[in-house]
Design goal:
By secondary structure, the chain is an alpha/beta fold. It has 3 domains: 72-143 and 356-434 and 457-517, Rossmann fold, CATH 3.40.50; 149-336, Dimethylsulfoxide Reductase, domain 2 (3-Layer(aba) Sandwich); 564-678, Barwin-like endoglucanases, CATH 2.40.40.20. It has 26 helices and 27 strands. It has a 6-stranded mixed sheet, covered by helices on one side. A 6-stranded mixed barrel has the order 22-26-23-25-24-27. Helix 4 (88-106) packs across helix 21 (464-475) and helix 18 (368-374) crosses helix 20. The termini are far apart. The protein binds ligand MGD (2 copies), iron/sulfur cluster and molybdenum atom. Residues 16, 18, 20, 22-24, 51-52, 54-55, 187, 575 line the site of iron/sulfur cluster. This is Molybdopterin oxidoreductase family protein.
Length: 682
């Protein structure tokens, strides 16, 4: 099958590998062995042939002249980007000889992998790599940069990442897009909502920034950053007071509603308005709309959980549909993530049994800078793949200082010489997902998909799977698990499925049918994975874990007295830092802007379009002011993880804190404070 695809020209089904909830079905057009066009697959049941602008221009990235073709060895200073090509043999030999020395002198925990989901293919993102580093005994990485605070919070309420089937939201009459820039980050949820609007549905957006999504809303509600749990509690107060709750539903499917009713007394609309900045009348209007429209659906974003209190915010919002009983109506409920429906057997895929020393230390990826500068005993080698920490990780000045250490041996495996790769001793060229075999599971819709290679590896590039097989062999590890083929890994993992929703899905099914849906018929609101099996409005487990057992508003951490809360989110035409080095996508995005309120701009004598400096105790960066009323006074918002910045070249993450959120060790990108000033030209 693979060989056939590779030999032939034509149009081939494929899947988008980017870390995006939509996980679109694609059609790849190939001529003379080269991909010439990528479009949406009209047969995909959810994404239906529509794809984003980013991926429509993917060929510009795949064949970007800057793409790596051979392994490289550093010749200049760390960070300055001078390298010379070497062979794979030399690269692997250099890595393995250094690692053997570190293991002998400092033990295996002196080596640390650093990865995320630059490629969402399960085998390449969390398969052979995990097996290899378990076998080696390397320090473990807590992969907490994206969504863990919110997922942990949601789990306390709902028992797992289980939400509404998005295909059913065609029936929805009220969409609340809560802290999600869906136009850019979940476009098909927005497409469904807009279609539903033609049948009378309303779209409400609650956000700190009236961005692409807020501008599409029937009603945009601006809110102060980090205060969303107060708004949700105020809504609960009114739902109970005005008898808009479904007591039968609560009795049957929840625990703790009596305690909750008592508890939300204190969150009266006046108090909530003072916390959130949302006018009292709007709190009433929103709640009445929510309490009387059915089916109602809340799309909970990732943005609002990138805060000190992000876990509790999501835990709290997740209680709302249980008060109204929205879960019982087709198209009602909420989605934070639907990951649990397609969850594979991670022990089968990753083989944690290969790790001998179960006490191996673990580092949180959000604190990479601190880890590289302060870990005791130190980390002497870092292996980065599927990630670009010099740009995406908080406190990036600390990260870069750590990466500059002379006694740190760094390997980066990527398609490009990223800002991170510039600090590497050895750089390895990676294949794109279109050159790989892998299985994909969306965290929004319910379809699993298989990618089969469409084109030959670019230059001498190799997949993550292949690199870890090579490293295992060179290290002398003879475990069979470390030589499994791409197909075997997928076969093994799916055959050992311990998840009732996908027990019918096998590798062969994925080969035959491009899109195989989870079977959620055994899903029951009475058999959730919470301790009680029900929706937990009151959670004893939370109390045990040191959190308030009832949903609660907790304020952001008080930082030093800088006047602005800084919210640096992703943008429309990049995918995190991916595409931020591709001319086409940079052109589409134009400039890195900082959105600020005109009152603040006036006070600071800043005009629209001027370059301004943002700074705090952690760092500084330069952005172009976008002055208007899209953000509240006291808040500044940037979009995009730009790699190439003006001035001192520091990126937005030079300013973000590496404090951890209230739950799951999550990131707090949006809870930092900054100062803003005009750049004087003298
Ligand atoms: N085009 C594009 N798509 C992407 C990505 C990308 O980089 N570009 N990244 C992908 C990834 S990895 C992820 S995790 C998702 C992220 O995508 P989303 O889930 O949409 O999350 P963000 O864009 O980080 O933030 C969403 C919104 O939250 C708002 N926000 C920030 N703080 C608060 C708050 O306290 N309260 C409220 N109500 N709103 C707040 C921001 O202004 C923003 O509009 O998107 C994925 N899709
Ligand atoms: N300020 C701020 N920072 C943020 C965020 C934010 O909203 N604001 N969002 C955070 C979030 S939610 C996330 S998920 C992280 C994402 O952060 P990262 O996971 O680091 O995502 P990317 O920046 O897209 O970098 C992925 C890299 O993987 C490479 N890659 C792609 N495919 C492969 C492959 O098959 N093999 C190998 N070896 N490499 C591959 C790409 O070329 C790219 O350089 O960023 C976080 N950082
Ligand atoms: S980035 Fe998202 S919207 Fe764009 S093609 Fe990929 S999955 Fe679809
Ligand atoms: Mo993410």
């Amino acid at each position: 099958m693979h060989a056939n695809l590779l030999k032939k020209d034509g149009i081939f089904p494929s899947v988008c590998s980017l870390d995006c909830p939509d996980q679109c079905g694609l059609l790849v057009h190939k001529e003379n062995g080269k991909i010439v066009k990528i479009e949406g697959d009209p047969d995909h049941p959810v994404t239906k042939g529509n794809i984003c602008n980013k991926v429509r221009h993917m060929t510009d990235r795949l064949y970007d002249p800057k793409r790596l073709t051979t392994p490289l060895k550093r010749t200049g200073k760390k960070g300055d980007g001078s390298f010379t090509p070497i062979t794979w043999d030399e690269a692997i030999e250099t890595i393995v000889s250094n690692w053997k020395r570190f293991i002998k002198e400092h033990g295996p925990e002196s080596i640390l992998p650093y990865s995320f989901y630059g490629n969402m293919g399960n085998s390449n993102a969390e398969g052979m790599d995990r097996r290899f580093f378990y076998r080696l005994g390397a320090s473990q990485l807590e992969r907490a940069i994206c969504s863990v605070a919110g997922s942990t919070g949601y789990k306390y309420t709902m028992g797992g990442s289980v939400g509404t089937d998005p295909e059913e939201t065609t029936e929805t009459k009220l969409f609340i897009m809560w802290g999600i820039n869906a136009v850019s980050t979940n476009m098909h949820q927005m497409t469904i909502a807009q279609k539903a609007r033609k049948n009378g549905a309303k779209i409400v957006v609650i956000d700190v920034h009236k961005n692409q999504t807020g501008r599409m809303a029937d009603w945009f509600i601006p809110i102060r950053p980090g205060t969303d749990s107060a708004l949700a509690l105020g809504m609960m107060h009114i739902l109970f007071a005005e008898k808009m709750v479904d007591r039968d539903f609560m009795k049957e499917f929840t625990v703790g509603y009596a305690e909750l009713e008592e508890h939300v007394q204190q969150y009266d609309p006046q108090t909530v308005s003072e916390i959130t900045g949302v006018p009292v009348d709007d709190i009433y209007a929103l709640t009445r709309m929510y309490g009387t429209t059915s089916p109602s659906f809340i799309r909970i974003g990732n943005g609002l959980q990138h805060h000190d209190n992000g876990g509790m915010i999501v835990r709290t919002i997740a209680c709302l549909p249980a008060l109204t009983g929205a879960w019982q109506v087709k198209g009602g409920g909420a989605i934070k993530s639907n990951k649990s429906f397609l969850r594979h057997n991670s022990a089968a895929l990753q083989r944690p049994d290969l790790l001998e020393n179960k006490q191996t230390r673990t580092f949180n990826m959000n604190q990479l800078g601190k880890v590289l500068l302060e870990a005791d005993p130190p980390v002497y080698s870092l292996f980065v793949y599927n990630a670009n920490p010099a740009v995406v990780t908080p406190e990036s000045n600390k990260v870069r200082k750590g990466l500059s250490r002379d006694d740190l041996f760094t390997v980066v495996h990527d398609l490009f010489l990223t800002e991170t790769a510039k600090y590497a001793d050895i750089v390895l060229p990676a294949t794109s997902a279109f050159e790989q075999t892998d299985f994909y599971a969306s965290y929004w819709h319910h379809y699993m998909q298989l990618q089969q290679p469409v084109v030959e590896p670019y230059g001498e590039s190799k997949s993550n799977m292949e690199v870890f097989r090579l490293l295992a062999a060179a290290m002398g590890y003879d475990d069979e698990a470390l030589q499994a083929s791409d197909e075997e890994l997928i076969q093994e993992t799916l055959a050992q499925s311990n998840n009732p929703f996908i027990k019918h899905i096998r590798y062969e099914d994925l080969v035959k049918n491009h899109y195989v849906k989870a079977d959620r018929s055994s899903f029951s609101l009475k058999k959730l994975d919470t301790p009680s099996g029900k929706i937990e409005l009151y959670s004893e487990l939370m109390a045990k874990d040191g959190h308030p057992p009832l949903p609660t508003y907790t304020p952001l951490v008080e930082e030093e007295e800088f006047p602005f809360l800084f919210v640096p989110g992703p943008n429309h035409n990049f995918l995190n830092s991916t595409f931020s080095n591709n001319e086409k996508h940079i052109k589409l995005e134009k400039t890195a802007k900082i959105h600020m309120n005109k009152k603040d701009a006036e006070t600071l004598n800043i005009e629209d379009g001027e370059l301004v400096r943002l700074w705090n105790a952690r760092g500084e960066c330069e952005l172009t002011a976008a002055v208007g009323d899209n953000v509240l006074p006291g808040v500044v918002v940037s979009q995009g993880l730009w790699a190439d910045m003006p001035g001192k070249k520091q990126t937005v993450n030079a300013l973000t804190p590496d404090r951890l959120a209230d739950m799951g060790g999550g990131a707090t990108f949006f809870s930092g404070r900054v100062n803003v000033e005009k750049i004087s030209l003298d």
